[in-house]
Amino acid sequence: MKSSKWLRLSLKIYLWLVVSLFGIISGVFQPRQVLASEKQQDTVNNRIKTPSETHSFSTRVESLLSQSPTPDTQLTVLITGVKANPTNKGVEVILETVQGEQLQITNRSDGNSFIADIPNAQLRLLSGETFTFRSEKPMAGITEITVTNIDANSVRLMVVGEKILPTVELFDGDEGLIFAIAPTTTATQPSQPANQTAQEEPPVQQDEAIELIVTGEQDQYFAPNATTATRTDTPILKIPQSIQVIPRQVLEEQQVTRLEEALQNSSSVVYNGTDTFSDLNYSIRGFNQAPVLQNGFRQYDFAEIPEVANIERIEVLKGPASILYGEIQPGGLINVVTKKPLSEPFYQGELQFGSDGLIRPQIDISGPLTDDKSLLYRLNAVYSRRDGFRDFDQEFKQFFIAPALTWKISDRTNLAFDLQVSNREQPWDSGTLAFENGVIDTPRSRIFNEPDDFLRRDFLSLNLSLDHKFSDNWSIRNAFRFTDSTVFSDQLSIFLGFDETNGELQRIFALDDFNSRNYSLQTNVVGKFTTGALKHTLLFGADLSRTNTSRFALANFTSFPINVSQSHLWRKSPGL
Asked: Potential cystine with 460: which of 423, 484, 509, 565 (Cβ 3.0-4.6 Å)?
């Protein structure tokens, strides 16, 4: 008797476990969905459903969290794009993000509008620009679909029905978060009498084309991603190193014409002036000789000043993490990212005037060369001229041109080419004289070298890169760069000594001709994978660089003195 009683109890426990396990499995594998059909027509009994009948309560922890407010400590998830794709059931709106599982959704209805708020997200393109998605009349029964930023940390999706509340379901996908919007009927129809002949159903209409209207907002001070610290396109919030980005918007609004002016926006960066070898003398956090890179490539002897008109953004990496680019002072480095071709037509012209007779015209044009936008171009060109502030007629001149091409060979392969050619001429300026007893008291406009002394810098850069994606998670990037730099001085005044009793400055003269050629190659493999709950980005690569330099120098060691109090009265020097 006891055995049969225990047998019945065991069977009850077993059946309870099976039912519980089935409920858990069915709850885990059901899709995340947010239903907005409180006012939908009930096709079975021809009545309006009550809210208690239409809401679906999921037993999944993820679904319960999606209906709860987002904690303040939640990091903002970037939504980099919005797509609206027609389906056989309606329209799918896809919020493109790699962190879709972290999005938290709170939904509600307002009249004929379905509203979904995401309090831990932000609409931003990879370039850093914010945007607004809007689609008018994407299908029958839907007036408008919009996706906008409510504030700095919230996104709102709104689906407006013509006469009744639309039906919206939410799913997780590989591309991001998917809102499936189904077509709706206009209103509840009365039942037909039994003796009335049913009318012929209208033919099924083909899906209409969806018109998308995307508007951008001028908010480009915030740069969410940077490549300098990791050599991968990584959000700055996830980079432990100290990195500061100066975007293009800042350069344009400040009317910056020289690199040192732009870097005044970065703390710990100090411009140390010029010398014969380079105009790129910067110190970061007190360490001199901070290198200036272009698109991740180091510049060595006789490096050229990057032209501001061709700069997309400037990334300053501070601290010893700069060792990623080789033997570098631990203060940090400066990486200049140049402009790339655009897929939409772009035309810009600018003319600047300023003091000392400054005139600076420039053009920037870009767009597609083919109808399928597989071949893109961009052209930047600048001419600049201004007078010096010293005595005599001195002139600073510069010409710069940079054509660029991008060929999208396939969805997974891109080939990019760009060329930079620069020519600068400027008078040789020896600066202010200082000896044992301090700085010589002379007018600021006075020069102590010869008025016709000048420097000419010619620079050529050829860049070629090939990117290929093996899959969605693995890619390879090959980049090659060739540079040719020449610094020529017709006559340089070199000071030997100063006699304070008679005010004479002893000088000799020299001619210098420097040339440097650099060949650099970078190959990087980037892979993304997960181990359990952890996501990883692996970078493996190699850099190869070779520099050849040459120098021709000629000097006249015959001393040719000049009186500093009368140096504004020019007498032709013997020269070389």
From this structure: 484
DSSP string, 117-131: EETTEEEB-TTS-BE
Q: What percent of the chain has pLDDT over 90?
A: 28
> What was the pLDDT predicted at 275?
63
- Residue pLDDT, tens place only, 94-145: 888 888 778 888 888 888 888 998 888 888 887 667 788 888 888 888 888 9
Return d(Cα 260, Cα 283) in angstroms, integer.
Answer: 12
Nearby residues of 52 by Cβ (< 8 Å), 6 or more positions away: none
Compare 345 and 184 and report the one with higher pLDDT: 345
3-state SS, one letter per residue, for 475-507: EEEEEEEEEEEEEEEEEEEEEEEEECCCCEEEE
Triad 300, 301, 304: Cα angle to 5°: 80
CA distance 66 to 60: 10
Whether 560 contacts 574, CB under 8 Å: yes
Q: In degrees, to the nearest 5, what angle opens at C-alpha 312 toward C-alphas 311 and 318?
A: 85
* Separation between Cα atoms, residue 102 and residue 93, nearest integer Å: 18
Single-letter code of the amino acid located at 117: D
Q: How far apart are CA 272 and CA 258, in angstroms?
A: 14
The pTM of this model reads 0.59
Q: Beta-strand (E) ranges in 326-473?
A: 332-338, 346-354, 358-368, 375-387, 395-408, 413-427, 434-435, 438-439, 454-469
Decide: 336 and 314 in contact? Cβ < 8 Å.
yes
Of the candidates 390, 393, 386, 394, the residue with the CA atom closest to the CA atom of residue 360: 386
Give the N- to C-terminal CA distance of the chain in Å, as an integer: 125
Burial of residue 399 (number of CB atoms within 10 Å: 0-12, 13-18, 19+): middle
Find out whether 435 and 371 touch, Cβ atoms under 8 Å.
no
- Mean residue pLDDT across the chain: 77
DSSP 22-91: HHHHHHHHSPP-----TT-B-TTTSSBPPHHHH------HHHHHHTSPPPTTPPPEEE-EEEEEE-SSSE
92 and 181 in contact (C-beta within 8 Å)? yes
Angle, vertex CA 460, rays to CA 418 and CA 248, nearest 5? 55
